[in-house]
Amino acid sequence: MAEQPKPGQPRPIPPRRPLTLRDVSERSGVSEMTVSRVLRNRGDVSEPTRQKVLLAARDLGYVPNRIAGALASQRVNLVGVVIPSLSNQVFPEVLQGISDVLEESGLQTVIGVTRYSLAREEEVLYEMLSWRPSGIIVAGLEHSDASRAMLAAAGIPVVEIMDVNGTPVDSMVGISHHLAGRRMAQTILTAGYRRIGFLGTKMPDDHRARKRLEGFEAALCEAGLTVEARDFYDGGSALQKGREMTAALLQRHPDLDFIYCSNDMIGAGGLLHCLEQGIDVPGRIGLAGFNAIELIQGLPRRLATMDSCRREIGRRAAEIIAAGRAGQARSGQVIELEPAILPGDTIRRA
Amino acid sequence: MAEQPKPGQPRPIPPRRPLTLRDVSERSGVSEMTVSRVLRNRGDVSEPTRQKVLLAARDLGYVPNRIAGALASQRVNLVGVVIPSLSNQVFPEVLQGISDVLEESGLQTVIGVTRYSLAREEEVLYEMLSWRPSGIIVAGLEHSDASRAMLAAAGIPVVEIMDVNGTPVDSMVGISHHLAGRRMAQTILTAGYRRIGFLGTKMPDDHRARKRLEGFEAALCEAGLTVEARDFYDGGSALQKGREMTAALLQRHPDLDFIYCSNDMIGAGGLLHCLEQGIDVPGRIGLAGFNAIELIQGLPRRLATMDSCRREIGRRAAEIIAAGRAGQARSGQVIELEPAILPGDTIRRA
DNA sequence: CTGAAAGCGCTAACAT
DNA sequence: ATGTTAGCGCTTTCAG
Predict the structure, then answer these.
(1) Which of A173, B31, B128, B308 sits 20 to 30 Å CA-CA off B196?
(2) Do A329 and A290 share a structural domain?
(3) Which residue from B114, B64, B127 is spatially nearest to B87, judged by alpha carbons?
(4) What is the DSSP code (8-state) at residue A87?
(5) In a domain, A268, yes or no
(6) Are residues A315 and A295 in the same domain?
(7) Which residue(s) pair with B200 in the sheet?
(8) Residues of A in contact with B63 (CB under 8 A)
């Protein structure tokens, strides 16, 4: 009497124990094994049986238990993706490229975030590997020894992405940041700039930014020049910091004629500052960033930058994993993409 | 030496059976059960035995199999988080709040992205529930019937976030977007603006943006006013679109004195356009966005906006899940946060 | 086409 | 403090 559900509440009472194949089996009068076959579309099952099972499963609201399934079949449709951050716009774009491809292959992306810490990366990898994924994609080539050992021992495809300046555990897909820095330096020098400053982030573990700066300085050095002034920031809005740092840098070094920024947000801040101060860009001073983020499209002037091929990197990496899973042993691949310079309106035409 | 892999050629992954507890057991001479205890820090184990096990596990590079562990213990330290997008800056911030709290409780965040599609949300939820997570956090209150049924039947804590204008499956944490729109309208009216336009995104499934506009219009209506002109955009850089749409809107309706934007990026684009055109902001025209994203800190003028309490929402939602797991049945909670108005410099002082 | 039996690798619950 | 015994819910394998 009191147990009777009210007419207005046709929803099934949440079961105390999650449903199992057996429940569907009993409800449909079909053996567990055949139910399993129907639910996985595997093997031949007669149409009437099939319908009975599907109906019962839907009525009950059965959701299969992948934990049991994975244990029994020794197969998991998960691919781990390890990146430093989600707030950097750049990484969601890589992820997009990855999941575009993985989805087609029926693989599920699992994301892990390291906050640019190798120690945390190690934990995240351990956690991921404990779920026995079909593959791992990890940003960067710098890892702890333990992380590298884990990855090597996992016996699954591993793709390190975004950078090719180093030795991969298995495969790698990315650009040379050393070369990117070098190319930007050459472009700047060709345009006639000579007194060059740098603004970056205080991230000791952002190895890609570090490599860009190294390549940049190497190219300047070959031309007999150096980076005359540099500043690094830590935390806060990158756009705002770009403004402040540009102001501070130009105050200290009024004769700089170019500022190379480690990313587009800093560069955008610098650009806004200069325009507000009535400083002639790119005449009096030139600016460049890195990444070609979408934001720069809406700025008063198009910031010079470089395409970091994020989407493409994601896609190619995912293809390696998907192919590896399809039986084709595609390990040990090295794919280097070409980062194009987008000169925009903040570098003088040569 | 014939086995030596040529560079560039697919080198086969060393065939290896993943390590099991038994391997560690044999290597250390300790029973599987005790090894398991050591690795989980559970039960009393003598220090010498403990060390032997730890050493063996490390030597072998053993990574436990959580699939088996979860099946046996009927416990999974995973919490599913379902959000529409990762490129909207806003969602990574919610995620940050969530994982801050979950990490402390030893829970792992698993992210699913719906691309603002209810059909895809349903798939993502199904996929997640099949891993039997300890809880689910999902953005928004609008779901397919099947999704709602799944969530209700899962028998785990479910928290719907970011919105409180509706009926939750279980708990909800968010702000009233209806109220947010209304409050902004009141602020604008108090400041004396009367000819008001709106710019938004063409997202039929962004229910929160829709509710804000509804609340906004309701408040205008009560004051005997209406939104005189509106435009919606689709795809592309939001900042750039904000510029273009503002230009177009002001061209068509030169006598507008305020533009309310469905988000800060659009508003920022509008602001940049106005400043470039020498239009007096906030004198000639006022502007407002929504979300209080970090970006607006670096703009030439601080855009008026509203704090959407993202971090806090994430934290509170995660706390409900963590508490629910700790045995305290905290279901059916409703937490409404207060979205503060940040008037910035783009609304006249009353 | 369908079913019965035997695990997958681990842990809960008891022994000892 | 350590070992033994049963499964967890599913899939593989092999028989009907």
Answers:
(1) B308
(2) no
(3) B114
(4) T
(5) yes
(6) no
(7) B232
(8) 126, 129-130, 150, 153-154
Residue B17 CB lies within 7 Å of the nucleic strand C: yes
Domain that holds residue B31: 21-62
Selection from A215, A185, A175 nearest residue A338 by Cα: A175
pLDDT at B322: 94
**A108, A191: one domain:** no
DSSP-assigned letters across all residues of B131-172: T--SEEEEE-S---HHHHHHHHHT-S-EEEEEE-SS--SSEE
Is B25 in the same domain as B83?
A: no
| A235 Cα to chain B: minimum distance (Å) | 11
- The answer as to whether A167 is a domain residue is yes
Query: What residues are paired with A287 via a beta bridge?
Result: A259
Surface-to-core class of residue A33, CB atoms within 10 Å of its CB (0-12 exposed, 13-18 middle, 19+ buried): exposed
pLDDT tens digits, one per residue of A97-115: 999 999 999 999 999 999 9
CA distance B256 to B259: 8
Would an 8 Å CB–CB cutoff place A111 in contact with chain B? yes
Please check whether strand D approaches the CB of B41 to within 7 Å.
no
CA dist., res. B174 & res. B349, Å (int): 29
- The DSSP letter of residue A12 is P
For the residues of B295-328, what is the DSSP string, one character each?
Answer: GGGGSSSPPBEEB--HHHHHHHHHHHHHHHHTT-
Rounded to 10 degrees, the C-alpha dihedral A296/A302/A305/A306 comes to: 80
Quote the CA–CA distance of A146 and A131 in Å, as a whole number: 18
Same domain, B188 and B298: yes
Q: Are B195 and B255 in contact (CB under 8 A)?
A: yes
Residue A108 sits in a domain whose CATH number is: 3.40.50.2300
Q: What is the residue whose two structure tokens read 């404990």? A: A130
Interface contacts A/B by beta carbons within 8 Å? 158
- B217 within domain boundaries: yes
Instruction: Please give the nucleotide, over all strands, whose C1' is closest to the CA of residue A65.
Output: D9
Angle, CA A85 vertex, CA A82 and CA A219 arms, to 5°: 95
Q: Are residues A210 and A95 in the same domain?
A: no
Distance (Å, whole) CA B156 – CA A16: 10
pLDDT digits (tens, 9 = 90+) for A261-295: 999 999 999 999 999 999 999 999 999 999 999 99
Is there contact between B61 and strand C, defined as CB under 7 Å from any strand atom? no
Handedness of CA B126, B129, B130, B131 (dihedral sign): positive
Is B350 within the bounds of a domain?
Answer: no
Looking at the fold, whether B183 and B303 belong to one and the same domain comes out as yes
Four-CA torsion A72, A74, A76, A80, nearest 10 degrees: 140
Residues 60-99 of A with CB under 7 A from strand C: 68, 71-72, 74
Q: Is the pLDDT of residue A3 over 70?
A: no
Count up the domains in chain A and report the number.
Answer: 3
DSSP state of A304: B
Same structural domain for residues A100 and A121? yes
A197 forms beta bridges with A229, A259
**Quick check: A219 pLDDT over 60?**
yes
Check residue A14 and report its DSSP letter: P
The segments of chain B whose pLDDT lies below 50 read: 1-15
Phi, psi of B141 (to 5 degrees): -110, -5
CB contact under 8 A, B67 and A65: no
Give residue for tokens 């705002």.
Answer: A240
Adjacent-strand bridge partners of B231: B199
For residue B145, the chain A residue with the least C-alpha distance is A11
Cis peptide before B5 (omega within 30 of 0): no
